[in-house]
Amino acid sequence: MSDGARRSDELVRRRSVRFRLLAIALLPMLVILPLLLGVAIFRWNAKFDAALISKVNGDLTIAHQYLARILEKTGVQVRALGLSARFHEVLAPDARGSLRDLLDETRKEIGLDFLYLTNDRGDVLASSPPLQRRPRHDWPIVMAALSGKVAATGVDIFGNDELAAISPALAERARLDLVPTPNAVPTDRSTETRGMVVHAASRAMLPDGGAAALVGGTLLNQNLEFIDTINDLVYRAASLPEGSQGTATLFLDDVRISTNVRLFEGRRALGTRVSAAVRSAVLGEGRTWLDSAFVVNDWYISAYEPLVDSFGKRVGMLYVGFLEKPFSEAKYQTLAIIIAAFIAITAATVPIFLRWATSIFMPLERVTATIGEVERGNLSARTKMPVLGDEIGRVAVHLDSLLDQIQERDRQLREWNEELNVRVLERTRDLEHANLKLEATTKQLIMSEKLAAIGEITAGVAHEINNPIAVMQGNLDVVRSVFGADADKAKVEFRLLDEQIHRISQIVTKLLQFARPEEYAGYVERHAPASVISDCLPLVQHLLNKTEIAVVRDDRASRLVLMNRNELQQVLVNLIVNAIHAMPDGGTLTLRSFDAERDGHQGVAIEVTDTGIGMSNEVIEKIFDPFYTTKRRQGTGLGLSISQTLIKRQGGQITAESHLGSGSTFTMWLPEAT
């Protein structure tokens, strides 16, 4: 069937009532509804993810408020000590109690790691625990308290030496071995020795009227009570679905110094580091991170916010998050249920729609089929539909009545036509006989004139070609005699020249055979395919030398073929040259010969296979057409057409198989010589 006929049938099907009814019935269910469902699922998925981000943002707000509350509480407690009557009593000259004892008692009571009183010169008047050496005096919080601010609090980073000056135990508690963490920023450090401290200072007046400051702090490194309290506040029991887990972490720079994230069972992930992406966003850019993140060994819905010290620098992060996997599983399970429900509903309702549509388009198709039968000449075709009360039934009955009338009119017309044909035949019989004689005579005259003209042209061409061939053959003999014994060094080349000159002579002979078939008689010989292939390869060796093509031989044919040797060489050389042209960048040329049977006849198959660019199906359908070529200006388009003609003349056949990008195979089959 032609492309035009297929397009016409497709157009008819699209315009049919069946097609339109099925489209009306199934389009909403199978197209519109899935699109709407897809859009709804997409928006729901986005809202679901947004809800998770919103929740973790709220969790971060709670953790932030708790930390702010700790800072505020520490400042209030230090300030309360500075304003207390007992504090002023122990500062009096006739004090009965010890200031150091008061500081030690108060520090333990409010849960501080250190508490000391310093004057505006940086001298420590009393401390708990006893300081090892004079502490750093230029903290902004301390300076603010000395300058008149009632109380100042913040988060500060103490170096290990500064912690050791307060207490060797604090310096040891701050030390953490860094754990190699994937995706973290590369570092040469192996330990973290700095400490993150909740730092508070409150103004105090000395008995001599001098300014002083009460300074206290709590080390947050490995402060598990602090981080567990945040986790308990944020993620109460039943606040997350079963299987999920809430976590909280305090970072010094990008190192976890206090966390309830587990590195493995029984060990917290202290000393592990945050990923480079989170570090860049939070510490580098000062943004709050609200997104999914890989935390130690699993994915968490995470929230990170930067922590700023009293100098205004970003020195750490506060993190809260919960395990993402249970939410993802719940989301995918919900999606699976929705899709399964849609498929089940569709599977249940589509057959009902099809049954309703069938009750409408089946009668219409019956009417259409009847009209088609009538158009093809079957005037006895009828719908034979029962009388129904609807419009389609009335149309069918009316159609059958019209067809009865048409059949009767057609019968009458046929009778009149037969009578007229008899009369016309009697009048035209003699004229047809005369026309046949005239046509035969005309054809004979035209053929005689064509053959005469071709004979004259061919004889002239043959004469003009034979003269230079004779000169070439004579000169070749002279060259051979001049070289004498040295001519054996080019024995193969001389033989090839002789063969090709002989081949030209044979072509001239065939032209003369075409012009004067009665004067020439061609001859065929029995040949082994392997020997013919071997003779062809030197003829194309100059083309093979120009590219990196490997030649593979597989000669398994045991039978002989009956064909003119030059014609067989002509076909093989044409196929090999085409294969070489298909592999401009090199490849493998495979030449196979083997016994093969075709249509019950014994024969020999010769295959020429390349690993070149290949051909499309459209090209394969046309390659044997005369004048069709894919080589543009380099070819005439006659090679394969002539080869097919030569092979068919011997009762054989050439076929081709090819795929774009994977090469081509041409198979030549010839019957066995008997």
TrEMBL record:
SUPFAM superfamilies: ATPase domain of HSP90 chaperone/DNA topoisomerase II/histidine kinase, HAMP domain-like, Homodimeric domain of signal transducing histidine kinase, Sensory domain-like
GO CC annotation: plasma membrane
First-tier enzyme category under EC: transferase
TM segment ranges: 21-44, 335-354
Domain Histidine kinase: 460-674
Membrane topology listed for this record: Multi-pass membrane protein
Domain HAMP: 358-411
Keywords assigned by UniProt, alphabetized: Cell membrane, Kinase, Membrane, Phosphoprotein, Transferase, Transmembrane, Transmembrane helix
Listed Pfam families: HAMP, HATPase_c, HisKA, sCache_3_3
Protein EC: 2.7.13.3
Plastid listed as a keyword: no
Compartmental location: Cell membrane
Catalysed transformations (reactions): ATP + protein L-histidine = ADP + protein N-phospho-L-histidine
GO molecular function, one term: phosphorelay sensor kinase activity
Position of the signal peptide: none
Protein origin, superkingdom: Bacteria
Nucleotidyltransferase among keywords: no
PANTHER family xrefs: HISTIDINE KINASE, SENSOR HISTIDINE KINASE
Identification of the protein by name: histidine kinase
